[in-house]
Design goal:
Layout: H1 33-46, H2 48-55, H3 59-71
Helix pairs in contact: 1-2, 2-3
């Protein structure tokens, strides 16, 4: 069974997945306390891409929320920067 072209995700120039309704059902919904706690706890461990898929939001939204939380002092800045490779879906 093949996926038609309309259902395949697209990516921006940085390799981040653009909005796709199947992968980002919570996009545009208000952030819950539970979602924010998950973001704070797992952002550095799993990386922004995996967290975005777990929360059902775009990677850009997750990265922006992490930036805002760090700016307000609600999310600690990591002592050592961890780099996570992008997971690109292939058909």
């Amino acid at each position: 069974m093949s996926i038609d072209q309309a259902a395949q995700p697209t990516y921006d120039s940085y390799g981040r997945m653009n909005y796709h309704p199947d992968f980002h059902p919570n996009q545009g919904a208000p952030w819950t306390t539970k979602d924010q706690q998950y973001l704070i706890q797992y952002y550095e461990k799993l990386g922004p891409e995996q967290v975005s898929l777990e929360l059902g939001r775009t990677i850009h939204t997750v990265m922006t929320r992490a930036y805002e939380l760090r700016k307000r002092g609600e999310m600690p800045k990591p002592a050592v920067k961890t780099y996570h490779r992008r997971m690109r879906m292939t058909a």
